[in-house]
Write a structure and sequence with these properties.
nine-stranded antiparallel sheet, alpha+beta, 9 helices, 2 domains, 18 strands, single chain, six-stranded antiparallel sheet, 30% strand, disordered N terminus
């Protein structure tokens, strides 16, 4: 036998073995399936670029992520952008989901794996549907609970079932599907490091102002402008809490800015200026117990072209939207001078600053 003939024979043997393996796997043999890594949706890997809609259903609600010309957006939040990594996790993750072991076919036992139909009373399952532009289903799966194994990855996994199919499975793979909008949305709105901030202003609905500033980025602490005679700060760095207010703003909800009334007696304002001339103005409106914020960016006259582009980018991303921020972020942007001062007669070291600060009014947003 020549070397060439031997190689051909080896290849033919390998192909025959693989076909036999797949044939056995088709009969739900657990050990063979685990070894072969049979995909739950074998055709999906060639169609991931055809996915234009991601539908997620659970007892907690229904959510739809859509692909538009500008990118992936959340239809349930009026087309607000979503995180690309969440989309990849859902689509690519589902295309790589491998069947590990067949489980129960008995519907009365589905609940123990959380693979019952979503519409079943007290269902804990989640249904994930991928569709193309013609609304054809490319993949549809009921996602159950996880099985954890700290010693053998093959023994862990996720319980799944195709809708309408009695057979449930233990599958291996990682993909996400939640009906919580915050899981999908691009929650980070702005990040202006405190070292870049030269001045912060808050204006209460009654017109009361708090202004803090720094002479240069090297100045250790922010200074309160027009500090009343006899007033004492809780600590030298107390104003820095406001100075850091822009260092990471995150949404907990979002709506078109046209739907929020930014007028009336409850309107508060804030402004941030950076050393390079970026100016960010914020209006904060209290509506039905929730505080909504809108942003407008501009520049000072001497600002460089790069700063102007930064302002234009902020406006392009944010100007059409109103945001609910986390409660502590709202408290920062509506900070009053009282939060920075020692109470009259208090000669302490300011250790109770946090308690006093966190005791300011709640502005209705969450999480903390």
């Amino acid at each position: 036998m020549t070397i060439k003939t031997f190689r051909i024979l080896v290849m033919m043997t390998a192909v025959a073995a693989m076909l036999a393996l797949i044939s056995v796997a088709g009969r739900y043999n657990p050990a063979t399936i685990k070894k072969a890594g049979v995909l739950m949706f074998p055709a999906l890997s060639d169609k991931v670029n055809e996915v234009t809609k991601i539908h997620v259903r659970s007892q907690g609600g229904v959510l739809t992520v859509m692909r538009e010309a500008k990118g992936w957006v959340l239809d349930d939040k009026n087309g607000y952008p979503v995180r690309d990594d969440r989309v990849r996790t859902a689509v690519i993750g589902l295309s790589e989901l491998a069947l590990s072991e067949p489980k129960t076919k008995l519907s009365e036992r589905y609940a123990s794996l959380h693979v019952e139909d979503v519409d079943t009373d007290k269902s804990k399952s989640v249904e994930l549907i991928l569709r193309n532009k013609d609304d054809d289903d490319l993949a549809n799966v009921i996602i159950g609970r996880r099985k954890f194994s700290y010693t053998d990855l093959a023994e862990g996994g996720l319980y799944v079932r195709k809708p309408g199919d009695a057979q449930s499975w233990l599958a291996i793979g990682e993909f996400g599907a939640r009906t919580d909008p915050l899981y999908w949305l691009q929650t980070r709105i702005l990040k202006v490091p405190s070292d870049d901030v030269a001045r912060m202003v808050t204006v209460q609905p009654d017109g009361t102002r708090l202004v803090i500033s720094k002479a240069s980025p090297d100045t250790p602490f922010f200074t309160v402008e027009d500090l009343p005679d006899g007033a004492k700060l809780r600590s030298p760095d107390a104003p820095d809490q406001l100075g850091m207010a822009m260092d990471g703003l995150d949404l907990v909800d979002v709506a078109p800015v046209s739907r929020i009334n930014f007028s009336g007696d409850s309107l508060a304002q804030a402004q941030a200026k950076t050393f390079d001339g970026l100016v960010i103005d914020m209006d904060l409106a209290l509506l039905d117990g929730k505080t909504w914020t809108r942003f407008v960016a501009s520049t000072e006259a001497q600002a460089a072209a790069e700063v102007l582009r930064k302002a234009e980018d902020i406006n392009a991303r944010l100007s059409n939207w109103a945001y609910q921020l986390k409660d502590y972020q709202i408290r920062n942007l509506r900070m009053k001078l009282k939060a920075l001062l020692k109470p009259e007669g208090d000669e302490g070291d300011g250790d109770d600053y946090e308690d006093e600060f966190m005791g300011l009014e709640n502005f209705g947003n969450s999480p903390q």
